[in-house]
What does this fold into?
Amino acid sequence: MSYFAAALARTDSGWTGVELDLSELDDLEAVADLLRDLTGDGPGPALLLLEEDDEHVGIVRVDGGVGSLGEPRVFLSDRRAVQQSDVAAMLWEHAEVPEPDDDDEDEGTRPIAEPVGDTGVLADLGTSPEQLVEICAEEGLLPADVLTALCERAGCLDALEQLREG
It folds into this structure.
């Protein structure tokens, strides 16, 4: 599976970011530690933004500050990603995700994505929980488009685009 993963952090001088190779991180706590390092002594937040195989979006958030050890908050645009992706499973490692209901899937049609996790992960960054679910479910939007829309609302689109351009 192919993916794009960016870690973005709000600092005193604005948003900054790095592209990540998640194969070098063992678990969600390692991701959270890396995100905390990006905020330095500032309040953050720091976000991991993941798009994978044009199928789903993942978001991990930690808030910064000296001595901050707050739990990472995780959102996935589709619960099925946990069964289909090692990266999504690593981000969602301790969550209980219900198994897909076979009755929901008609042959020849793609089932509707079911978001899981903290839908309020971007609420203070311009995207309410309801808007997050709506954007993720909007027909025709690829995961890259979803992340673009979310970053535009949060004010970190320039940092994301710099990473995409390499």
Remarks:
- The chain has one domain: 3-96+112-158.
- Helices lie at 28-39, 81-84, 86-91, 129-137, 143-154, 157-165.
